[in-house]
Amino acid sequence: MTTTFDDLPGILYSAHRGGAGEAPENSMEALRSSVPWADVLDLDTQVLADGTPVLMHDASVDRTTNRSGPVAEFGLAQWLQLRADPATWFAAASPALTVPTVAQVLDELGGVRVMTVEAKDPAGVQALARLILDRGLQDSVLVNTNDPAVVPIVRAAGCRAHLWRSAAQMAGDDFGAFVAAGADVLDIDIAASDSLITAAVAAAPPLGVWAHTLTRRVQRDRALGLGCRGIVTDYPGYVSGRAPRRTATSTDTGFWGLGWAPSGKTRPVLDSSGRIPLPAPTAATDTQVLLAGEVGAAAPTGTFEVRFSVPTAGGAGWSLLSLHLGADDAPTKLTSAEILHNGYTVQVSNSGSLRIYRDDATAGTSTQLANTAAGTTLPANTVHTLRCVITATQITVSVPEAGVSTTVTDKVYRVPWSVFVGRNHNAAASGLINIVGISTP
Fold first, then answer.
1. What CATH code is carried by the domain that includes residue 284?
2. pTM as predicted
């Protein structure tokens, strides 16, 4: 049975770039892995020299494949020999993958899920429409664009239109005019203001307003609260809540299913040793990563461990490694500058000192509960363990290999935790911190 737009649920989840947080973007592997969790499969397309639409986000193949050059200069025979190279940008253990044509995707997954196919090159709209119509998928596949002028072209070609807009673009948009021109979906930026999002919702496009690109359930809740119908995410299993909690992290498997959702735009890459390197922040912000699909939400009490190593010891290499336990999955800066939820942050410094903070969202404060004196500099190329044991009344933090430990009595928060690891900004500390493993109760 073919799945159509009429079969979409009242709240729907779209796998952005095929589900780019779970498997390499715009690959058959990503699309297949998203089918159990997503209502919509989202893919990006470019056009080859002969007009063939293929899956690719960028105008060139440089970032994601083993070749270089503009997509538009490849012929079909060359394209079929091309291989994605996710070992360089997703996970070192990832094998080379073929880069499919749109026809291949439609032939395998057309009608299995609703799809939205973005024409990154507007010149590809007619070719996309032919592929869709020839397979009788006009009620199952949207043609997506960022250009309002392309919407009437999509409709004239016999397809339904999906229009996405950035927050900057939304500030000057007439959403009602977009719907009148034939936009079936308005896809808004979650970074936009509440007033802009509700204005888009008020325009009432036929298939609703969708919000992109979300990595957090708190973002989902905001979008739905403002009237959005669709949630566009790299992590459809996690953000939807449909995927079960994993029992093994990707540092244990070294393969698919990373589930690492960064606070910023830089996504960590699992290296060939099964470690996740956290680079030094390049600006006065922190590097923080949510263990989205992996080990959150963890039990309120028990033992949490982050195993790590550093190639460069002392202050030149790193300053602080943090384990953050949050009452929800909003990213909080690893300082007292921005406290977005309740929970605790525990830290170890390069000199072996330990710190414990209680984060209180209502007050917007981070209260230091413990700060031990500096001990011995943690040596390089040795696995250390930042251990946090939470009981009903106490929190104990230690680095057993260094023989340091501290305990505080505090029972203010005991909830299912969203688990983050991260490092604080320090202009003088330019080395890596390698996350070797994570374990939670």
1. 2.60.120.560
2. 0.92
